[in-house]
Amino acid sequence: MRAAFLLTLVGCCAMASARDASVTAPPQAPAGTPDPAAIRAGAAIYLRGELPDGMPLVGTRADGPGLGVRGRDAACVNCHQRSGLGALEGNVVVPPIAGRYLFAGPGAGTADLPYTPTARLNRRAYTETSFLRALREGKDADDRSLGVLMPRFRIDAAATKDLIAYLDTLEPEHVPGVDPSVLHFATIITPDADPDQARAMLGVLRHFFAQKNDFPLSPSPRARFGGLGYYTKNMYRTNRRWQLHVWSLHGAAGTWGAQLDADLAREPVMAVISGLGRNVWQPVHDFCERRKVPCLFPNVDVPVAARGDFYSLYLSDGVLLEAGLIADAIAAHHDVHRVLEIYRRGDSGEQASAAAERRLRRRDPEARVERLGLEPSADLAAALAHAPPADAWILWLRSADLARLGSPVRAPSRVFVSGLLGGLERAPLPESWRSRVRLAYPVDLPEDRRVRLDFPLGWFRFQRIPVVAERVQVNTYLACGILSETLADLSDNLQRDYLVEVLEGMLEHRFLTGYYPRLTLAPGESFASRGGYIVRFVGDQGSRVVADDRWTVP
Q: Could you give the maximum distance between any two Cα atoms of the chain, in Å?
């Protein structure tokens, strides 16, 4: 999955040289204070491959014009990442080009730089002139040729100056929510969140934070890497106490953005961890993208899928993923021509129903899909008794409704049910329904996830946390564990963008993945798990679930 990213890394391993570390030179950052317009123009080059005149940035490879890049494909962010701190993939190193690293050389200028494993400062510090030459001619600060896959860009001195202005804004010295002795995090609860689930989630968060603060990691010993091509640097891992802030929203969703802005101004945080919503999360997602605050794995039924967003990460896309699983399963049955979707208005199933209809119509433009939206107080049995004929039903209903289902006399032989809304294998379906129901199941099967759940469930017992919302509590514990491991890898380079980038790199190596068989996040992806099963009930009184087919990604 990360192969394309790896190729990009190889292509942009640009600013390193093999010059002997004994060469010293004082850092020479470009003179002058850049104006906001220059920073915006530099950001367009770095993030989008767009020059100040609106034309695309163009680069060619040293070994032939056929290996060129253009526009977004030529943008610096593809290799050096949004933070400007580079990347490490196997033995391929993309060094940082954030201003503080770019204009620092061996010895002088490095004492205050946070440790970064990708830094190679055993070369002269770049100047504005030598950086332009590196971009245009592929020569580093010591006049050595850069890698053949590093593009040679068509860029002039003025645009390069704008790019430098933007690079100087990267790797800030102060990050909101990062104090000398405290790291501040928030969790967000929307007004429509289930109160019992909210208490259960907060119990896990508070116990995890308390344990983290009671048993901090010992500081790492000093390490010097000057002999291996790294810059000579003492590496410290400062222990900071974790502080949790709870931001409980209220009122109409249109006011949430302003509430969150006020919360952030009052309580600056490095990131949002976990969180709880139901069918409305868009204002929270938009806030995190707008304010550049990482939002790590909230518990929501309807996550937000937006191309190009960076800061909001989800374990899966929830009922929208279920919509894809069900639509594909229905499309595989060529004798199903009429589909009826049933949901409660204002609940998560309404958006899932619309997503399933869109996918069904893409798969079969002749499909007849009808959506029956029930008011929250409407009688379910009466609605089903008068439902129009259909070859298949999709029930986007919660467990309370499923428990009230009556005799399936008029129900079609194919009935699909949302596992997430209904309670997965614990869905309280009457026995008379179980033989005909197929359940969307966007998590691992119970017997396959049992070992991975032993650890969090054992921790809950040790902490005396009652398990009242297992999936929410396990997901919250998983989010906390991922955050803890990521922060350990950051060392003292505590930046929001870098937090997301390091998390993306380490996630696929994690064994404890909770309800999910595996988690992966390539750069630019939002959903760590993208597949699931369609399962059926088997055994005595339909007490177990088995998959109809293998794990499927819609």
A: 85
Contact 529, 551 (CB under 8 A): no
Cα 109–chain centre separation: 34
Return the pLDDT at 63: 66
Structural domains counted in the chain: 3
Token pair listed for 164: 């430098």
Q: What is the pLDDT of residues 408-421, one digit of tens each?
A: 778 898 999 999 99
Strands 295-296 and 312-313: parallel
Starting at the edge strand found earlier in the chain, the sheet holding 368-374 runs 368-374, 338-344, 392-396, 414-418, 437-441, 533-538, 544-547
Tokens 């222990």 sit on residue: 239
Amino acid at 159: A
CA 513 to CA 527: how far, in whole Å? 14
Residue with tokens 């690293």: 101
pLDDT digits (tens, 9 = 90+) for 279-332: 999 999 999 999 999 999 999 999 998 888 999 999 999 999 999 999 999 999
The pair of structure tokens assigned to 16 is 């390193």
Q: Where are the beta strands (DSSP E) in 251-304?
A: 271-273, 295-296
Distance CA 384, CA 231 (A): 70
Domain shared by 20 and 141, yes or no: yes
Strands 87-89 and 92-94: antiparallel
Burial of 101: CB neighbours in 10 Å, binned 0-12, 13-18, 19+: buried
Q: Is 131 helix (H, G, I), strand (E, B) or coil?
A: helix
Residues 154, 29 share a domain: yes
Model pLDDT for residues 107-155, shown as the tens digit of each residue: 555 667 788 888 877 778 899 999 999 999 988 888 888 877 788 999 9
Quick one: 377 and 259 in the same domain? no
Domain end call among 167, 199, 228: 167
pLDDT one-digit tens code per residue, 19-29: 233 333 334 44
Q: 415: part of which helix (H) or strand (E)?
A: strand 414-418
* Closest by Cα among 407, 397, 305 to 355: 305
How far from chain centre, in Å, is Cα 286?
Answer: 14
**In a 10 Å sphere around its CB, with 0-12 CB exposed, 13-18 middle and 19+ buried, how is residue 427 labelled?**
buried
State the amino acid at position 104 in one-letter form.
A
Domain containing 259: what range?
A: 182-316+450-501
DSSP string, 428-459: ---HHHHTTEEEEE-S--HHHHHHHHHHHHHH
What CA–CA distances, in Å, run from 360 to 336, 340, 388, 394?
11, 12, 18, 12
Q: Give, for 183, the enclosing helix (H) or strand (E).
A: strand 182-189
Hey, which residues does 241 pair with through a beta bridge?
Answer: 182
CATH of the domain at 248: 3.40.50.2300
Helix, strand, coil percent values for the chain (each to nearest 5): 40, 15, 45
Q: Would residue 358 be called left, alpha or beta, if left means φ above 0 and alpha means ψ between -120 and 50 degrees?
A: alpha
